[in-house]
Model the fold of this input.
Amino acid sequence: MAEIERNFIHDIIDEDLREDPNLKIHTRFPPEPNGYLHIGSAKAIMINYQVAQKYNGQFNLRYDDTNPAKEDNEYVESIYKDLTWLGAIPNGGIFYGSDYFDKCYEYAIKLIKDGKAYVCDLTAEEMREYRGTLTQPGKNSPYRDRSVEENLDLFERMKNGEFADGTRTLRAKIDMASPNMNMRDPAIYRIVHTDHHRQGNKWCIYPLYDYAHPIQDALEGITHSLCSLEFENHRPLYEWVINNVGCGNGQFPKQREFARLNVTNTVMSKRYLRYLVENNMVDGWDDPRLPTLCALRRRGYTPASIFDFVTRAGVSKADSLVDIGLLEHCIREELNTTAPRRICVQKPIKVVVTNYPEDKVEYFEVSNNPQNPDAGTRKVAFTRELFIDADDFAEVPPPKFFRMKPDGEVRLMGAYIVRCNEIVKNEDGSIQEIRCTADLETGNGMPTDGRKIKGTIHWLSAQYSEETTLMLYDKLFTIENVNDIPEDKTYNDYLNPDSLIKLENCRIEPCLKDAKEGEQFQFVRVGYFCKDTKYENTFNRVVGLKDSFPKK
Done:
């Protein structure tokens, strides 16, 4: 977990502690189990978890499972897996919004008896019409003045399943002229005839989030309900519910908001991510192009790099768009010091060293990580037939091309200097092999006569290497800010057609065949890669070697 940096939320809590030194800080992360967590979720997790850590408090995981139509146990399990992978262990406990359905119902009855809630027969469309606008007050529902007895009877019948979905709601009776639209008699219960993943068919009425959430916070003893800025206008309703239902232990939670995380070239909409998955436009929720945490994990990102990214992006109340290059910089910076170096030839071309014995095998020692002397070295086999990368050869080289070219010399990394003498082609004009001679006096890569060799390329023995598949992932969208898409366009219009390039028949060192799933490496001169967790003998590109993001 990244070091906890001070932010405005800590200032708020410090002030609360000055007023009440005995206050025991308690936070929560309340995801709805209707999809997989994404990197925006990581910010909310980090803030709530680290606040609890900083103040020796408690941190809860609470599933907001109050909408059975969209929820599934698959998402419940994935959320817990992601949370623990990040290292945010819920030391305060694991809870479900559905644990509080009986209490929410009990408090709804209290609101009705107190004249603060009523059953409304308006349709959703009619409710929108009655709600008014930002500049015009709303109109009272014709059902607003029903008697307490009638409301209790209708609400009981709603619970008993007598009415169809959408025909009635229970609404809080607040103020239809309020300048805050959320306070204009919001619905707090709706009818949904759908089995719940934990409650089965016990209920056919379900509390809405703005009503259920403050009750859950109060009952769990949450002191600070830290959420994204989109809920700032919901805060008065949050406080109204707590003040009017009489729940909790007298220590009421405070809702405080922070700016959500927006990242360039990607989208955080669960609805659209689900669309991509359900329409087979990506390889599941863990497709490494997606911003979901399971996708980032499969791609090779680490919890430390994600928290480093969120920390550098900052915690504030001002919305901003964070360059995805910062996330790439964070993982690149980490892997530069931790990832073992290995050799991979992405687009193999055969090279025959004609003056090297056919039956000879020689081993050259290479570093496992120049950044870490303790990482040691390994031996790489050298034979007469080698593979080099197609990008390291040019039959007609451009200016200042210092790699392999006709009649030119180049250094084979850690081994000999070779000269390209002949190009053998297939009938279709493609290269069958390149024939070279090696300066066998340059086993350390240094010429004995003082001549300068400007180019160095990587290589592998044809005999002592294995085939593999590389998945080269890039940004999901071609547009930087997906929130600025014109009205006549959709997300689909900006999907990056080159977000995945699959390279087959690549060559790797034999030791990589036994790499563990999720294990990361730097393929020298190529990039950082991770052994895929879904497909055998496949490596995913985590990030390239070049860092375009400005360092501190």
Notes: Residues 344-458 form a domain with the Ribosomal Protein L25; Chain P fold (CATH 2.40.240.10). The two ends are 20 Å apart (CA to CA).
